[in-house]
């Protein structure tokens, strides 16, 4: 098994909003309020278009060889450009299989826009077979290929009416799900300077995604009962060894 499960957290791109709405001189909080209000008026929802999001965290759970690791790219002071560059550099270097929850509908499109915004190159990610024939029938971009597995998309049978929230599916399967934090609280945490809490939350989301992935692999027959338990134990032992409060909390909620 070799997979790279990932998740991103975002806040409103107030630089864009300030320029787009002609709000020079207004503080970020007021600009974000104007952006969401305009969106609400236009659509009935205050969820911003994907190109108006700014990435503040990318977390990864990497299963490779005999090891498992979960971490957040860069550090608390890293710029958006740096963490996005690190994400695509990892793909460039290792060509991993990507695993996400709604990555096709949210995470990757956001990363596309932001990578262009910062001039980040990612030729391996955008490969579709012109330079590597192996990518013609299995690449990161096709919805029905497996080099990127969007669990939400696949488990719903690609039907919007059958989609489910990661938190609810994780809970259904006996995993911790959300632990008091959710995506709609990220902006408030960001304004308060609590980037560390955002990064920790992103890591627990990516852990839920990876654990759901293990159950999916078991359902597909790629893991038998014994192998599944072995994978669980590897995750548990990794979290125990990390000695980090948010991972200890996740482990306790999991019954570990």
Describe the structure concisely for a colleague.
The protein has helices at 14-20, 28-43, 80-94, 103-118, 151-155, 166-172, 186-191, 195-220, 225-242, 245-254; strands at residues 3-12, 53-64, 67-72, 97-100, 148-150. By secondary structure, it is an alpha/beta fold. The chain is globular and about 60 Å long.
Q: Can you tell me about this structure?
A:
With 256 residues, this protein is an alpha/beta fold. The protein has one domain (3-246): Nucleotidyltransferase, domain 5, CATH 3.30.420.10. It is 49% helix and 14% strand. A five-stranded mixed β-sheet has the order 3-2-1-4-5, with helices on both faces. Helix 1 packs across helix 2 (28-43) and helix 8 (195-220) packs antiparallel against helix 9 (225-242). The longest helix has 26 residues, at 195-220. The protein starts with a strand and ends with a helix.
């Amino acid at each position: 098994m070799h997979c790279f499960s990932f998740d991103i957290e975002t806040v409103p791109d107030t630089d864009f909003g300030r320029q787009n709405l002609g709000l020079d001189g207004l503080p970020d909080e007021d600009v974000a309020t104007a952006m969401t209000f305009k969106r609400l008026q236009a659509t009935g929802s205050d969820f911003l278009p994907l190109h108006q999001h700014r990435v503040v965290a990318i977390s990864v759970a990497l299963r490779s060889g005999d090891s498992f690791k979960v971490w957040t790219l860069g550090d608390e002071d890293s710029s958006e450009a740096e963490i996005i560059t690190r994400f695509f550099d990892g793909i460039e270097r290792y060509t991993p299989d990507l695993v996400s929850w709604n990555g096709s509908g949210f995470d990757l499109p956001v990363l596309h826009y932001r990578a262009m915004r910062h001039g980040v190159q990612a030729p391996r990610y955008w490969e579709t077979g012109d330079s590597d024939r192996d990518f013609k029938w299995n690449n990161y971009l096709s919805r029905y290929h497996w080099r990127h597995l969007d669990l939400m998309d696949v488990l719903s049978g690609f039907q919007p009416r059958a989609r489910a929230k990661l938190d609810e599916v994780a809970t259904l399967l006996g995993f911790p799900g959300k632990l008091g934090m959710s995506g709609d609280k990220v902006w408030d945490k960001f304004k308060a300077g609590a980037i560390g809490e955002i990064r920790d939350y992103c890591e627990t989301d990516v852990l839920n995604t990876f654990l759901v992935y293990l159950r999916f692999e078991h359902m597909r027959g790629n893991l038998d009962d014994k192998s599944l338990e072995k994978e669980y134990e590897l995750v548990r032992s990794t979290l125990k060894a990390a000695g980090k409060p948010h991972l200890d909390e996740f482990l306790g909620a999991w019954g570990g």
